[in-house]
Specification:
Elements: H1 2-15, H2 34-43, H3 45-52, H4 58-72, H5 80-99, H6 107-120, H7 124-137, H8 154-161, H9 165-172, H10 177-183, H11 187-199, H12 205-220, H13 223-229, H14 231-251, H15 257-269, H16 275-290
Length: 295
C-alpha cells in the first residue's frame, strides 16, 4: 500500500493539467517530457516497496531510486527532490502500517514524528550514498564554499568530519526548501496534504492540486527558481502566484483558468519551473493518500 501511494502521488503530480512552469500532460521541455516522469514513477516502485520495509539506509534508498529512475528514461533529473521527501516518508509510513497505527486517530502526526526521527538518525554511510546519488542525478544546486556536492573532495570531507546525511541536508536548509522539509519536520508537505484534502471536498482533484500548488508557491516561493535565476525572478514568480490566488478566492478557479494557463505558458517559455514546489506537492499527495484520501 505504501509503495502504491508513493507511485500514485508521483503520477498524479505530473498528470495535473496545470502547475505553472512545470511539466504536465500538455506542457513539457525539449529535454524533459511528460513520459519521462511517468517512466520514473513506474521504475522506482520496487525502491518504495523496500523503503516501506526498511528502518535505516535512507541514503542507499535515495541512490537506488535515482538509479532505477534513470534506467527507465533519458529525461535527466526528474524526481531527485521528490525522492528526498518520499523515501523517508515511505519508511515512516511502513513503520506505521507494521505497528497497526495507520488510520488511527492522530496517525498523520505519528507519521510526521516518525519521518523526522528517521531523517535525524541517518549516518555517514547515508551521507556518502546521497553524495553519489546527487552526482548521478546531476542536480542543479547553489554554489557553496565548502562541502559542495559537485566537488570530488566532498566525500573525503564527509568521512573526515564524520558527517551524517542529516548534517548535509541541514547545511542546505537555509537556501533549499526541500532540504528545509527535513529540518522542519516536513511541515510544508503536511500543509500541502491538508490543503489538497480540504480543496478536493469542493473541487475536482486537478483543481485541488492546482490551487494548492499556487498557494504554496505564493506563500513560500520556490528555491529552485532562486538558484537558477536569482531572487528577482523568484520574487516575481511568487508575486504572480499570489495575485492568482487572490483572484481565485474572489472569483473561483473556473474563472481563473485562462489566467493560470497564461502564467503557465509564460513560465514555460522562459524555462522558469517551480520544481521544488512540485516536489512538495508530490509529498503532500502521498501524505493525503496515506491519510485516507481516495480519488
Amino acid at each position: 500500500m505504501v509503495a502504491q501511494c508513493a507511485q500514485l502521488a508521483m503520477i498524479l503530480e505530473v498528470s495535473t493539467p496545470t502547475k505553472p512552469g512545470n511539466v504536465d500532460r500538455f506542457h513539457e521541455y525539449a529535454d524533459t517530457k511528460f513520459e519521462h516522469f511517468l517512466a520514473s514513477a513506474v521504475g522506482v516502485y520496487p525502491v518504495f516497496r523496500r523503503a516501506s520495509q526498511s528502518r535505516r539506509g535512507v541514503g542507499t534508498l535515495i541512490k537506488d531510486a535515482v538509479l532505477q529512475s534513470m534506467k527507465w528514461h533519458s529525461g535527466g533529473n526528474t524526481h531527485f527532490g521528490t525522492f528526498l521527501l518520499l523515501i523517508p516518508l515511505s519508511m515512516a509510513a511502513g513503520e506505521l502500517v507494521e505497528n497497526g497505527n495507520l488510520g488511527s486517530k492522530g496517525s498523520l502526526l505519528v507519521l510526521r514524528d516518525t519521518a523526522q526521527r528517521i531523517v535525524r538518525s541517518t549516518d555517514m554511510l547515508d551521507a556518502l550514498e546521497f553524495y553519489e546519488a546527487f552526482r548521478l542525478a546531476r542536480v542543479k544546486v547553489k554554489s557553496v564554499p565548502s562541502l559542495d556536492l559537485r566537488d570530488d573532495e566532498t566525500a573525503e570531507e564527509i568521512v573526515k568530519r564524520e558527517l551524517t546525511l542529516y548534517d548535509l541536508i541541514e547545511m542546505s536548509a537555509h537556501y533549499d526548501m526541500v532540504a528545509r522539509e527535513w529540518v522542519n519536520g516536513f511541515s510544508v508537505s503536511f500543509e500541502s496534504a491538508k490543503l489538497i484534502a480540504e480543496e478536493i471536498n469542493q473541487k475536482s482533484l486537478w483543481d485541488a492540486i492546482t490551487i494548492t500548488f499556487l498557494r504554496i508557491l505564493a506563500k513560500y516561493g520556490d528555491t529552485f527558481i532562486t538558484i537558477k535565476f536569482g531572487n528577482e525572478v523568484a520574487e516575481w514568480t511568487k508575486k504572480r502566484a499570489g495575485n492568482l490566488v487572490e483572484f481565485i478566492e474572489k472569483a473561483d478557479i473556473k474563472n481563473a483558468r485562462n489566467l493560470i494557463q497564461s502564467f503557465d505558458e509564460e513560465l514555460i517559455s522562459r524555462k522558469i519551473n517551480p520544481g521544488s514546489v512540485a516536489d512538495i506537492i508530490c509529498s503532500g499527495l502521498f501524505i493525503a493518500l496515506m491519510g485516507g484520501m481516495r480519488l
